[in-house]
Amino acid sequence: MKELTKAEEQIMRVIWKEGPVFIKDIIDQLPEPKPAYNTVGTFLKILEDKGFVARKKYGGAFQYHPLVAKSKYTSFLMKGFVSKYFEGSVENMFSHFIKNKELDLKTFEELSKKYKDEEP
């Protein structure tokens, strides 16, 4: 899997949220200034080449749907982040957040209990 550019990720966020969509639906969900129809089409072709989306033709238009789940991409990004900034150690990452008071130990313990038995 490859990391998405900011623009590609913005488009994927719409697709993950809305489900199968046409280009005009994507454009409607993007912030101002709205990109051109052809620009979004180009990014969708790139996303298709990267294996993130597939398309189905309806008349003269294509509808796009995700091939990669948002949770799978998030896991991929987080593993890269932990590897790049915390020597591959999740413990180092949490230690950093606790030391910098971005996460208190009580909250960490509550989250640990809450998600202990859940499957990824």
TrEMBL record:
InterPro entries: BlaI_family (IPR005650), WH-like_DNA-bd_sf (IPR036388), WH_DNA-bd_sf (IPR036390). It comes from Fulvivirga imtechensis AK7. Pfam families: Penicillinase_R. GO terms for molecular function: DNA binding. This is Transcriptional regulator, MecI family. GO terms for biological process: negative regulation of DNA-templated transcription. Keywords: DNA-binding, Transcription, Transcription regulation. The lineage of its organism: Bacteria, Pseudomonadati, Bacteroidota, Cytophagia, Cytophagales. Belongs to the BlaI transcriptional regulatory family.
